[in-house]
Amino acid sequence: MFRTKINGIGRHLPDNIVTNYDLEKIMDTTHDWIVQRTGIEQRHWVKNREGTSDLAVIAAKQAIENSSIEAKDIDMIIFATITPDYFFPGSGCLLQEKLGLDTIPAMDIKQQCTGFVYGMATADQFIRSGMYKNILLIGAEVHSKALDKTTRGRDISVLFGDGAGAMILSATNKDDPTCILSSHLHSEGKFAKELWTEAPGMGMDDEEFMSYDILEQGKHRPYMNGKRVYVHAIKRMCEGIIESLEFNKLKLEDIDLFFFHQANLRINTAVAEKLNIPEEKVFNTIQKYGNTTAATIPIGMHDAIEAGVLKPGMLVATSAFGSGFTWGSSLFRY
Ligand code: UT7
Question: Which of 35, 152, 230, 260 for a ligand 1 pocket mutation test, highest count of atoms within 8 Å of Cβ?
Answer without folding.
Answer: 230
